[in-house]
Amino acid sequence: MCGIIARAGRGDAVPLVLSGLENLEYRGYDSAGVAVRNGDGIDVYKRSGEVSELSAQIRDGVASGNVGIGHTRWSTHGPPTDANAHPHTDGDGEVAVVHNGIIENHEALRERLADLGCEFTSDTDTEVVPHLFEHYLERSEDAEAAFRRTVRDLEGSYAIAAIVDGEEAVYGARQGSPLVLGVAGSEYFLASDVPAFLEHTDTVVYLEDDDVAVLRPDSVGVTDLDGGDVARDTEHVDWDPEETGKGKYSHYMLKEINVQPTSLANTIEGRIDAEDGEVSLEEFPPGAFEGVSEVQLVACGTSYHAALYGQQLLQSAGINASAYRASEYGTADVPVTERTLVIGVTQSGETADTLGAIRRATDRGARTLAVTNVVGSTAARECDDALFIRAGPEIGVAATKTFTSQAVTLALLARRLAVDVPHGDPRDDFEAVAKSLERLPDALDRMLSASDAREVGRHYLGSDAFFFIGRGRCYPVALEGALKFKEITYEHAEGFASGELKHGPLSLVTPNTPVFAVFGGDQDEKTLKNASEAQTRGADVVAVASQGHPAVDAADAHLTVPDVHPVWAGLLANVQLQLVSYHTANQLDRAIDKPRNLAKSVTVE
Ligand code: M6R
Question: Could you tell me which residues come within 8 angstroms of residue 74 by beta carbon, excluding any fewer than 6 positions away?
Fold first, then answer.
C-alpha cells in the first residue's frame, strides 16, 4: 500500500503536500517524494527513507508552486531505492506521476514504449504511466484528453495523480484503489485517505472507478473516461482533525490504546438499550437478516482475530458461523449460497485479500456486509451493506482500538442476527451482557490507568520467545497478543489455543519463554492446568485475569482485568497485552508506529 496526495490552490503546495505525506506515512515508509509545478517546469524531490528525511532535503532546496503531488511508498515492484521512489517522470521531465496500486500490464506497456524510444530509469510498474501520458500529450488536443487516453490503456488497480509542465492542474484517476477529493473552499486535495488533508477540510467526494478528476487552483471537475460529466455526492467526514495527531503521546499506538474508552463509547453509542437488553442498528431494522441461514467471516491479521471472536459469539447465538483467513478463502471451494451472509471484517476496507474474498462471495451469489472503520472504503462500497465500527482514524500500523471496536460491533451484529435468522438463539442473559457493555468504557479507563504492563514487559526483556495461550473467546485474544508482540518488538511470539500447547508447542517451552495465559471465563480451570504444564517445564506464567481469579495465586506475574461480563473479559485482556507489546517494543527502541517491512493495510494479494 502506498499513499498519494495532490493539491491545487493558491499559494505554495509544497508544505501542504509534505504534511499530507506525514499523515499518510502509515500507508508505507520505504521512500517519499514530491513534485511541484514551479512555473519553469516540474521540480521533483524524492528519496528512500521517511518523509522527515525528504522534508529536510526540501528545506535545503527551493521548491514552491501552487500545484503539487506527493507519494509515500511501500515497495512492491523494485527495492526501496531513490530511483524507485515516486514521483516518476517521462524522459524530458514534462510529466510527473504518483501511483498507488499495481499496473498489471506494465511489462507490455514498457515494451511498447521502449520500441518508441522511451528509456526507463526504475524497476517500478508506475514508470510506464508518465511515459504513456507524455506520448499521448504529443498526439492530443489537450492534457485532459491525453490523461484519459493514458488511463484507458492501464490494467490493474491504481489511484494516480499527475501534473504536466505548462498546465496549472492535477489529473487524477482511480480503478480499484482509493482516491478521495477534499474540497476546502477554492483549494482542492486528492488523496488516498482523508487524514491526508483532514486538517484543511472535512468536505469530501469519494471518487469511483473510472472517474477522472481535474483539480485547478479555483475549480474542480469530475468526468468519466469519455469526458462526460459525472455527479458525485459531497460528504462530510465526522472525524476530528485532533484524532489524526499524536497529541501528548510519544507514539500513535500508545495514543490509540489509550483512547479506547472513547472509541469504544463511539462504537456502541445509540446501538444498545441496556434497559430492555436490545440492540438497534440503524442500518439493520428488525427483519433485515431474514433469509440468512449461515454466516462466513473473512478477514486478515488483527481483523481475522476479531472475526474469530465474532465467530464464537455468533455460534453461541445459535448461528452457523465460520471465520476464514481471507487469503485462504479462495483456495478451498467454500460452499456459498444466496442464504450465506459473508462479512468482510477490515479496518481499512482496502485489504486486497479481504476484497478478493468478498468479490468471490459476491460472484457466487452471497449477500455481503463490510464491517469497517472507513466510510467510502472499497469494502464499504462494494458490499451490499456496511456497518461502521466508528473507532476514528487509526494511524499506528499496529491495529489496537479497531480490534476492540470490531469485536464489539460483531457482538452487536450477532445479537441482531440471532433475532432474525431461523435457528437463532438470542441469549437470555443479554440484558446483563448489554449492561456490562455500557460500563465497559469506564472499566477500560480504570484498567489503563492502573496497568502494570510496563513492569511486566521490562521484567521479561531478553526472553528467548513469548507465548500466549487462551481458550474459547480468549483464544483469538492469545493469537492477537502474539501478533501484536511480534509485529512491533521483532521478538519471537506465538499464540496457541491453551489445550493445544501439550500437542507439540510445549517442546518449545523453557525457563526463558514466558507464557501469557488469558483467562476470561471459558473453561478457565482447563487453561489453568495448561498454564501449570508450562510452569512445570520452568516457564513463568503471566496471568491476564481479574483480581481474585484462582490463576493469580498460581501465576508468577499478573495483569489485572476488571470484573466484567465474561463476553467482554477477553477484550480487556487484549488491551493489557497491547500495552505489554507497546512497552516492550519501546524499551527495545523499536519503530513502534512504523514496524519494519510492514504497512497499515496491504493492497496486494
Ligand atoms: O485493514 P485491515 O483490517 O483489513 O487490515 C488487515 C491486517 O493487515 C491488519 O489487521 C494487520 O494485521 C494489523 N496491522 C496488525 O496490527
Answer: 1, 2, 27, 28, 29, 30, 599
Residue nearest to atom 10 of ligand 1 (CA): 302
- 263 within ligand 1 shell (Cβ under 6 A): no
Q: Are residues 193 and 65 in the same domain?
A: yes
**What number is the average pLDDT over the span 192-207?**
94
Q: Are residues 277 and 363 in the same domain?
A: yes
User: What single string gives the DSSP state of each residue in 49-90?
Assistant: S-HHHHHHHHHHS----SEEEEEEE--SSS-S-TTTSSPEE-
Ligand 1 within 6 A of CB of 204: no
Residue 99 lies in a domain: yes
Task: Tell me, rounded to whole angstroms, the distance of Cα 74 from its chain centroid.
Answer: 14
Query: Of all atoms in ligand 1, which is nearest to the CA of residue 400?
Result: 16
pLDDT digit string, tens, across residues 410-440: 999 999 999 888 777 777 788 889 999 999 9
| Nearest-angstrom CA–CA distance, 325 and 214 | 39
Provide mean pLDDT across the span 204-230: 95
SS3 33: strand
Note down the domain range covering 224: 3-237
Q: Does any ligand 1 atom lie closer than 6 A to the CB of residue 397? A: yes
pLDDT digits over 139-165, tens only? 988 999 999 999 999 999 899 999 999
Evaluate: CB of 302 within 6 angstroms of ligand 1: yes
pLDDT digits (tens, 9 = 90+) for 493-538: 999 999 999 999 999 999 999 999 999 988 999 999 999 999 999 9
Specify if 45 maps to a domain.
yes
Q: Show Cβ contacts of residue 335 under 8 Å, excluding neighbours closer than 6 positions.
A: none
Same-domain check for residues 317 and 459: no
Residue 268 has pLDDT above 80, yes or no: yes
Residue whose Cα lies nearest atom 12 of ligand 1: it is 301
Verify that 101 and 228 share a domain, yes or no: yes
345 Cα to the center of ligand 1, angstroms: 10
354 ligand 1 Cβ < 6 A: yes
Establish if 596 belongs to a structural domain: no
51 and 195 co-located in one domain = yes
Q: Which of 145, 180, 142 is nearest to 161 (CA)?
A: 180
Q: What is the pLDDT of residue 61?
A: 57
Same domain, 112 and 164: yes
Q: State which of 193, 308, 347, 582 you would mutate to test the pocket of ligand 1, scoring each by most atoms of that ligand within 8 A of its C-beta.
A: 347
- What confidence tens digit (pLDDT) does each residue in 124-137 have? 999 999 999 999 99
Domain count, the chain: 3
Res 100 pLDDT > 90 = yes
- Statement to judge: residues 534 and 481 lie in one domain: yes
Contact 326, 304 (CB under 8 A): yes
Per-residue model confidence (pLDDT) at position 62? 63
Residues marked as catalytic: 2, 600
Q: Is the pLDDT of residue 274 over 80?
A: no
